Amino acid sequence: MSDSIMKPSAKISRLLQGIPLPKVVKAHQQFENGSVGNIEAEVRRAVSELPQYQEIRAGMSIAVTGGSRGIDRIAAVTKTVCAMLKEKGAAPFIIPAMGSHGGATAAGQLHILETIGITEESMGVPIRSSMETVNIGALSNGLPLCIDRYAHEADGIVLINRVKPHTSFKGKYESGLMKMMAIGLGKQEGAQNYHRCGFKNMSQIIEEAGNLVLSREKVLFGAALTENPHSKINGVHAIAAADIPAKEAELLRFAYKNLALPFFRTVDVMAVEEIGKNISGTGHDPNVTGRFNNEHFHGEVTTGRLALLRLTEVSGGNANGIGMADFITKELFEKIDIEQTYPNALTSTASPAVKIPMVLPTDKEALLAAVKTACLPDFTKVRLAILKNTKELETIYISENMAAEAALANVQIEGEPQEITFSEEGRLTLSF
């Protein structure tokens, strides 16, 4: 199959001849911009106020969780927490707490930490990466409750994670400290077990598993991070272990209010220039693209046809999320590493997320194919949006027929309508 994709197809080009692409305008969306300036000072302020921090004793071994990609200044947050623990005479160490990420291997998870600036040298503490878990009980449905062996054997556990809407399920708990306890610390085994229950039940599973971990393990406190619509940290919330369930539910509601979305709610065609695990767990945020990997949840945005053009280098070939698209480019296709992509889907049971969509030779042909298949009686009236990625929504391109709608939403339009431009090789050349 790959050989045929590599070759230019006169037949495909002929079928796409005569399909018009609309002129577009550059649109600037305004989002709340408040963020934490001095992140180290804010972490110190929040953590030092906790009685649980003051109770830390010299010599205690403390496991500090290291999460996955895409969190603003996560290395600085983690280093500061570890430094504060060392100042109390404790012996902190970092453990990857990311379920099946990194190809579900200890070495792969170490590599992910390295890509986000978390190494033994930069943190000043050991990193202990293992996929070995300890069984500490069972959920009400009989599934075993397991936790990273190093975390279990430590004198205490400190959690660090961002609280945000999840890309595959909705509920009282989504991404955050509760999920990190259930799935992150559960490693491959825990992630695999809990995902067997399906995404429609995931929030309830996380609630039960998280509460059981809190009751059976030596969790000291958590540092929950919240973000503004620009994906910059706007709050550091140090939470005592007993208060995590109630406080996280509150922070998730806050996170939803700070979620950046495009001003429109329906488009015929959306093109996203880049996807990747550093952008979203599913490569692109379904809340923005309108494409979820299961039938149980829907967002506010509806997209007729979705084209994905490139995969970020930092994703390391993990192309999770391509299956929600209608079209991808040959360039993206060639970047897919099956060994990095499939473990995520097999563990999460989200096989639709990694299906191979129709592969088009170039960016231009992917956009033409999306317009051609958008079921429009008049192609010239297509509603089209082009995004750099689903995290950076301040500047997007929209078809000129959406400009009036944008103005009503207080979106600033820059310049006159322009043609969608491509290089000689068919690569998109619009500047964001």
Overview of this structure, please?
The protein is an alpha/beta fold. The chain folds into two domains: 181 residues, no CATH class; 218 residues, LarA, N-terminal domain (Rossmann fold). 33% of the residues lie in helices and 22% in strands. The protein contains 17 helices and 15 strands. The strands form three sheets. The protein has an eight-stranded mixed beta sheet with strand order 12-11-10-9-13-14-1-15. A five-stranded mixed beta sheet has the order 3-2-6-7-8, with helices on both faces. Helix 5 links the parallel strand 2 and strand 3. Helix 3 packs across helix 5 and helix 9 crosses helix 11. The radius of gyration is 23 Å and the shape is elongated.
Q: In order across it, which strands form the biggest sheet? A: 12-11-10-9-13-14-1-15
Q: How many structural domains are formed by the residues? A: 2
Percent range for β-strand residues: 15-25%
Mean pLDDT: 91
The geometry reads as elongated
Task: Tell me the span between the first and last alpha carbons.
Answer: 34 Å
> What is the makeup of the main sheet?
8 strands, mixed
- Which blocks of ≥5 consecutive residues have pLDDT under 50? none
Helical segment count: 17
Q: What is the fold named in CATH at topology level of the largest domain?
A: Rossmann fold
CATH top level assignment of the largest domain: Alpha Beta
